[in-house]
Amino acid sequence: MLFAIEMKLHIFNPDHDIALAANLANFTPPHAARRLYSDIGFLPVFWASDGDIVVVDDAEAARERVRHIKGLSTKVEFVAASELARCLAALPDGQLTAVEPWGWDAALCNRLHRWGVPDQLLPTAEHLADIRNMSSRAWAASCLQPMLEEFESGMLAVPVIARSAQQVDEFIASHEHVGTVLKSPWSSSGRGVRYISGRDALTVQQQGWIDRVIASQGCIMLESYYINKVKDFAMEFRSCADGTIAYLGLSLFHTVNGAYSGSVVASETEKVSMLQHYASAEKLAAVASEVATVLQPLMAGHYVGPFGVDMMVLSDGGNGFKIHPCVELNLRRTMGHVALSAWHSDILQQRLLSITYSGSYHLRLHTTTENLINTSLARF
Which of 42, 171, 309, 339 fits a 20 to 30 Å CA distance from 92? Predict the structure, then answer.
């Protein structure tokens, strides 16, 4: 293996959000998360530098999968998790300079410690507690979303934190004209979310889920369903070591039944153009600036790394549109970051980064000549 003089270690830990909810150092990811890591653990090749280490389940399988992805070439070193301790022990002191996971949680830190990663490269227990707290939807509802509420005056409603079944019942009843969205404080993408019509009584299954979330996570989040939602999108950022927030770009993505299925890989100019019917370039820039301005003092000294903010385009009831500047805060790397890393200025065609499942997970980069034009992602 030919390692760089200085290198970073990267790992895709798709169980991150679930691990945050469990908050256990000795956490066993569910089968689906383990399979996702086994099949596409090579994902950091999109942003890792030459000579960096990417920890995977099977190094040879990862190299073979990468060879089949169009336009992707890399000089990273794939190292199987079972071999990592031996690999790190052979490195000179100081050669490994940083660890960049998909997201930080206690379970991952415990695994990395067992694999021989130096403790000085891992977050402290206090730092992990900050990250977990700020990753909660309750934190966003208390500290972030109220500060963005007036960005689109009269259009947004800050989520309510409910700590009892009675509070849930009262909220649902008061929102029966639009419906209620219930969310667990910590959950993985596409999960931990339920939609309730206020006109219907809660089913036994729904009530049981609500009770379990409150008992295990301390509360449940209640939101008004936005019947005027037109489109979902996101903005991607990085919280820097000097305390500043850097805006990285737009994320245009597609979901199926709430689960991620693909992202547009294109220039910022092209992505802004896809949203031009709903918001001008100036308006999008203003949203990004406002989010960064609000988050900078909240994150400084507490979190360094990538994060994403999910947003919505809302109809204003007339011929205009408004931007909901913060539906979700994802305090980790996102597939939007992956799509940004997959874009290169020398590639002229727009592409679609997709993940599909057919017995195993597969990641592909499709060019527009294959199927991007025919997807809903292209109809912005």
Answer: 42
